TrEMBL record:
<keyword id="KW-1133">Transmembrane helix</keyword>
<keyword id="KW-0175">Coiled coil</keyword>
<dbReference type="GO" id="GO:1902201">
    <property type="term" value="P:negative regulation of bacterial-type flagellum-dependent cell motility"/>
</dbReference>
<dbReference type="InterPro" id="IPR001638">
    <property type="entry name" value="Solute-binding_3/MltF_N"/>
</dbReference>
<feature type="signal peptide">
    <location>
        <begin position="1"/>
        <end position="21"/>
    </location>
</feature>
<feature type="domain" description="GGDEF">
    <location>
        <begin position="356"/>
        <end position="489"/>
    </location>
</feature>
<feature type="coiled-coil region">
    <location>
        <begin position="291"/>
        <end position="321"/>
    </location>
</feature>
<dbReference type="InterPro" id="IPR043128">
    <property type="entry name" value="Rev_trsase/Diguanyl_cyclase"/>
</dbReference>
<dbReference type="GO" id="GO:0052621">
    <property type="term" value="F:diguanylate cyclase activity"/>
</dbReference>
<feature type="transmembrane region" description="Helical">
    <location>
        <begin position="269"/>
        <end position="290"/>
    </location>
</feature>
<dbReference type="InterPro" id="IPR000160">
    <property type="entry name" value="GGDEF_dom"/>
</dbReference>
<dbReference type="Pfam" id="PF00990">
    <property type="entry name" value="GGDEF"/>
</dbReference>
<keyword id="KW-0812">Transmembrane</keyword>
<dbReference type="GO" id="GO:0043709">
    <property type="term" value="P:cell adhesion involved in single-species biofilm formation"/>
</dbReference>
<keyword id="KW-0472">Membrane</keyword>
<dbReference type="GO" id="GO:0005886">
    <property type="term" value="C:plasma membrane"/>
</dbReference>
<dbReference type="Pfam" id="PF00497">
    <property type="entry name" value="SBP_bac_3"/>
</dbReference>
Amino acid sequence: MLFVPLLTLALLFTAPASGNAVSLTEDEQAWLRQHPQLRIAGDPDYAPFEFRNARGELIGISQDILSYCLNVLAIELVEVPTHNWKQAQDHLSAGAADLITVASQATHLDKHLAFSQPYIYLPVVILTRNQVDQQLGLKDLYGRNLLTVHGLGVNNYLEQFADKIRLVYAHSSQAALQQLSSGAADAMVMNLASASYQMQALKLSNLRISGEIDYTYQLAFAVRSELSPLIPILNKVLAAMPTEQKQQVIAKWINLEQYLWRPGNYQTLMIIAIIAALGFALMFALYLSLNRKLTIQNKALEQKSRLLEKEIEERKLLEVKLKEQVFQDDLTGLANRRKLLERVSLEWPRSLRASRPISLLMLDLDHFKKINDSFGHDVGDRVLVTTANILQDSTRITDLVARWGGEEFVLMLPETGHDIAMEIAERIREKIATTELDHQGKTITFTLSIGVATTEDGEPSFTELLNISDMALYQSKEQGRNRVSSIII
């Protein structure tokens, strides 16, 4: 069942608020003094995150968050005029602008950009007409018409269910909502914030939010790479933004209650019965509170309960932190072997059921021991981190990059056939081969060898396919290194 608190939490910013204090290093303060002004290229039509009002001013959730950050840092904002989102991106790439606010690192792989931590998560929800009286998941839409909008990132996720769901594409979110309202489709998917805002703006009172799917947008700030020192500064300010202020920003632009799924008649009767029982219990508690001794005991119990709740919350936060450490490589920040195997347990059965291709890339840095012996382990670590960053930048959000151990890496590419996997591998090999590191005035270059293995129907097992990719890697090593070899099953 969807409730307002759950959905509101889904929209909150990623970093925990620690108050208004922001601790900047001397270098960061000096950088801010040298850059008192930033040029922004805005998206004029992405309500409620960023859009122009009747006076032509950029407003929205992203603008409110950016204004908070720049006020804390005392940076002046200058707008570069834009007519659409593509023009905003072009201005940033060409150096005519310094910053955009509604970027997603998963869909913007431009090597000339630097990204902040995501400041907002956007769950994708299922919209229906009011006649639907139950909560829906993606499986409930099998065999039905599902509306979506051309160009959305969620479409790549939905297209893997194209054999079960009839996808209908609209040219804009407004057009899709109006088609759903008129009965042209059974349901529609859209990010939660835009859905709530657009339904209110279009006054579509016969629509509601009836569920959500397993897909989440993440919005962040993006700047030109020359301004990358600004990113850790922005991350600090976002982390220090008070929770109350975050909630106020969301409440200013989004009203979720009007469109949430509501219980049917039977469920309403159950809720009334529960409320009645709670009311009786409350009256009984009030009677007991007349007794002074019991009141003192109740207060003591309440204090213990609050302490216990605080301890439970701290334990949950610690568990989340420990889980991240368990599944993450300390040096590169990539997924480790444990995380890869967990992901395999999800992807492999799905590939087997759907008879969809999946590819594995085994990558190994050439002569890595020689780099450590010649320049030291610090330089070796730089090579590993640089390689990890290139691998992350060269893959899609649905792919998984893992450090297998030492100088070996593994890429798992779901929904990827042999030809595309070879293209990705060759692109990575070329990027690594042309990368240079400076160390004490010396230029360091390095290469890697890659083995590619592809299965078209989920067979053989992951372990067998991994061994095949390792065999292909061995071929690359035997044939002179710095090359790609493949074996297709």
